[in-house]
Amino acid sequence: WGVRAGGVERFADALVETANKIASPGRGILAVDESTKTIGKRLAGIGVENSEANRQAYRELLFTCEGLGQFISGAILFEETLYQSTRDGRQFVNTLNQIGVIPGIKVDKGLAPLGGALPHETWCTGLDGLSERAAAYYQQGARFAKWRAVLQIVPGGPSRQAIVENCYGLARYARTVQDQGLVPIIEPELLLDGDHTIERCAEVQEEIYSTLYQICQTQGVFLEGTLLKPAMTLPGADCKNRVSPDRIAELTVRTLERGVPAAVPGIMFLSGGMTEEEATINLNALNTRKRKGPWALSFSYGRALQQSCLKTWMGKPENVPAAQQALLARARANGKAQQGQYTPGSEPTLDRTGTFEAGYKY
Ligand code: 5MM
User: Which residues cross the membrane (predicted)?
Assistant: First the structure.
């Protein structure tokens, strides 16, 4: 593969295989790596207490959902979840593998204020000890990792400092976990907050991607064994000019073609507060456009895969089968959208408003 010397050499074939499996046709990622605080918000939304038992019960519902592997290739877990089991003692990593879903792990340690940058700009922590943690997660059965850096469009920003620092963290993380056998999902999330136009979003994302891949080169990241998890190219939540899914697809593809190397096998979008149906329709539009870029365009949705499921479950054991059907319906919808075959409204949703929350940094 011509990779730069280090642990990654021994894992190169496996990394490529895993990345390609995750980005395989008709499948995408279930992002359920909410930290304890964020899952607390989701559980509060259905009146359920944020206890370890309730977090375990919810994740057991997800990871024992028969048939999920047809549409979901990987699930991102929070550290607590990676070591949990079903109530009858089966490790979650095993139940996931049984239903055909590759277990992954969130390895960043969250955001911290970035001194010297614009107010509210952050950097992503977690590089200290990452190598050792990645080795332990691999031992426990994880085969891919995720690190989420956050940038925001504000007047005069994001600052160059924030872009460079966040891209540096993503690249260093990526190479570090590759050396331990984990496929890095590189997530430079650009928040929906703001009143900027879709064109401004495209401009900023172009700068982010070109900076990111330049630093990935400097750090020796093996691109064939990575996946990118960006936001779609969208107008800000407060922008008066709303745009069609076709326009979103056009600018998203153009931006990616300008900045993401062809060596990257898959682009797994985050949902960022869109409703379940919006996220699916936009993904479908992306996959019906003609394009030059060779990557798979798929999903790594958190909120846009879980809202109906949570609202059906409501913390009640008797609702588990119905909640699993709700999850399957949205997974199937996105599986079809990945192939450009989704008919709007053809799968049920209980998510009418979306989960966008202005100013919320989780
Ligand atoms: C599922 O939420 C993920 C973890 O968030 P925190 O550790 O900050 O609680 C989050 O990184 C998520 O994977 C991405 O934001 C994409 O999720 P959405 O909901 O935007 O699709």
Answer: none
Q: How far is the CA of 38 from the centre of ligand 1 (A)?
A: 8
Pick from 104, 131, 272, 267: which is nearest to 201 by CA? 272
Choose, from 79, 121, 165, 187, the residue flagged as catalytic: 187
For the entire predicted model, the pTM comes to 0.97
To the query of whether residue 106 is one of the catalytic residues in this protein, the response is no
Q: Is 103 helix (H, G, I), strand (E, B) or coil?
A: strand
Q: 158-169: per-residue pLDDT in tens?
A: 999 999 999 999
- Element (DSSP H or E) covering residue 32: strand 28-32
Residues 6+ apart with CB under 8 A from 286: 232, 248, 249, 252, 253, 269, 297
Question: What pLDDT score was predicted for residue 362?
Answer: 57
- Kindly report, residue by residue over 129-163, the tens digit of the pLDDT: 999 999 999 999 999 999 999 999 999 999 999 99
Q: Please indicate whether residue 187 is annotated as part of the active site.
A: yes
Residue 68 has phi, psi (to 5 degrees) of: -60, -35
Task: Name residues whose C-beta falls within 8 Å of residue 90's C-beta, 6 or more positions apart in sequence.
Answer: none
350 C-alpha vs ligand 1 centroid, how far in Å? 20
Torsion on CA atoms 268, 127, 170, 211, rounded to nearest 10: 180
pLDDT at 55 over 60: yes
User: Residues enclosing ligand 1, CB less than 6 A?
Assistant: 31, 33-35, 38, 106, 148, 189, 270-272, 301-304, 362
